[in-house]
Design goal:
Layout (H helix, E strand, L loop, with lengths): L1 H21 L3 E3 H6 L4 H10 L2 E5 L2 E4 L6 H11 L4 E3 L1 H8 L9 E5 L10 E5 L8 E4 L2 E4 L1 H8 L5 H13 L5 H8 L8 H12 L4 H14 L6 E6 L2 E7 L4 E6 L7 H16 L3 E6 H6 L1 H15 L1
Parallel strand pairs: 5-6, 11-12
Antiparallel strand pairs: 1-3, 2-3, 4-5, 7-8, 9-10, 10-11
Helix pairs in contact: 5-6, 8-9, 10-13
Length: 305
């Protein structure tokens, strides 16, 4: 009988250690009870220092590590099944341009979230299971969901930084993100994020670009002389030989490959070396900011003339 009890304790101990390793050396009271540990056994381990309370019902196995990952895992475990790191804390875990904070953001897929010390707990019954991932063994909102959430809290510049970081780390490129947002309807944060992305991914056809750009140039009193001609070995969008002026327009600013970026630099260097002045406008500026484009064209033409 004693041998069976000892074998049972050993088995429980092995499973507890395995589970703790998967959770940044953390266990919940519920997990310990499910493994067969009694309340008295848990209290004994707390008294002897083998367990240490980190949050309500959450214990570290041995001394707390003090890492952000352990703090995040403790926060998620303390909020129960279905909880996930979200908002700024999720962005910090994904490493997409948001600084660490002492407060941890957690979302729960149920109503009536309880208050927790140093936690911002959001009740989100509509948060889909597909929008929760696991990173470093920590349940966390997906990158797309995290960016949408950030757009409800942060100024545009910081949201754009997060989008850039997500692209840089190959988590999601802006074109894929834009397509994903189309399926989210009126969810808070979506409109803000779509507006930001459209400024960078907006692209006109060649015909529409020329149709919109010609009147702008005319109002700047420099009617377009040549379009889509080869200059210094590169095809340019608009060219004024009499002024030595080249205008290039960019669509899809995001997610350009290294080879495309290198080709752009070589192009710019070739025109500069030939003594040309070059301006770059985005397609979005041509479509939605024509007065700005006109002003820059007029000032540049006056200087060159």
């Amino acid at each position: 009988m004693a041998g069976k009890k000892r074998a049972g304790r050993d088995a429980r101990g092995r499973e507890a250690r395995r589970l703790a390793r998967a959770q940044h050396q953390l266990l919940t009271r519920g997990q310990l009870l499910a493994l067969g540990f009694s309340s008295a056994a848990i209290e004994h381990r707390l008294a002897t220092g083998r367990l240490r309370a980190l949050a309500r019902g959450v214990y570290s196995v041995g001394p707390p590590r003090g890492t952000a990952e352990q703090r995040w895992m403790a926060a998620v475990l303390s909020c129960g099944e279905g909880a996930a790191l979200s908002h700024r804390s999720a962005a910090a875990l994904w490493k997409i341009g948001v600084e660490l904070r002492s407060r941890t953001d957690v979302s729960v897929r149920r109503r009536g979230a309880r208050r927790r010390p140093r936690l911002k707990v959001r009740s989100r019954p509509s948060l889909a299971a597909a929008d929760v991932r696991v990173r470093d063994n920590i349940p966390v909102t997906s990158v797309v969901q995290t960016l949408v959430d950030l757009a409800t809290e942060l100024p545009q510049g910081r949201v754009e930084r997060a989008v850039n970081e997500a692209d840089k780390h190959d988590l999601v490129d802006p074109e894929t993100l834009r397509a994903a947002l189309e399926k989210r309807g009126g969810e808070p944060g979506v409109k803000t994020l779509v507006t930001l992305l459209d400024r960078r991914t907006f692209r006109l056809s060649d015909q529409d670009l020329e149709r919109l750009f010609r009147p702008i140039a005319a109002r700047a009193e420099i009617p377009v002389e040549l379009t889509k001609v080869w200059v210094n070995g590169f095809e340019v969008d608009f060219y004024w030989p009499s002024l030595g002026l080249v205008v290039e327009t960019d669509g899809l600013r995001y997610h350009r490959t290294p080879s495309e970026q290198a080709r752009d630099r070589v192009r710019d260097q070739a025109h500069t070396a030939a003594g040309l002045t070059q301006l770059r406008f985005t397609h979005y500026q041509v479509k939605h900011e024509p007065q700005y484009v006109q002003a820059i064209l007029a000032r540049t033409a006056a200087r060159l003339a």
